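Shipment paperwork, digital attachment
Item: protein structure file
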Amino acid sequence: MNDDRRRILEMIAKGTISVAEGEELLDALKAAPPAVSGDTKPEKAWSTAQPRYLRVEVTEAGRDKPTVNVRVPLQLVRAGVKLTSLIPKEAQQQVSAALGDKGIELDWANLSPQAVEELIESLAELTVDIDDESGDRVRVFCE
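Attachment content:
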């Protein structure tokens, strides 16, 4: 058993990560290309795998574990794009106008499965960390 796999199993046993998280890490470890030098870190190898979830974690000040932990399957985003074809044109225009008022430009005509795949690929590198003065922390990332 290699060191990375053993560390993941130890984290599961200690409760540091959930079984589902451990399973994902083990899957990513299998999918990762083997390291060619001692300088390659496992985290870099794992980042080459296509993300499967958009994750939002909120940790309140003074706590070690997140109080909010939401994982949204990116497959849901893909399915949502397919469903946009069912939205009437009037409703699409109203939603676009409302989003435009908030500074978000959305062109329903160009919302294609290919565009969504490009978006998901770019999300793989996304990490947003927000710390406020109270000590609360919000993290948004893909895994």
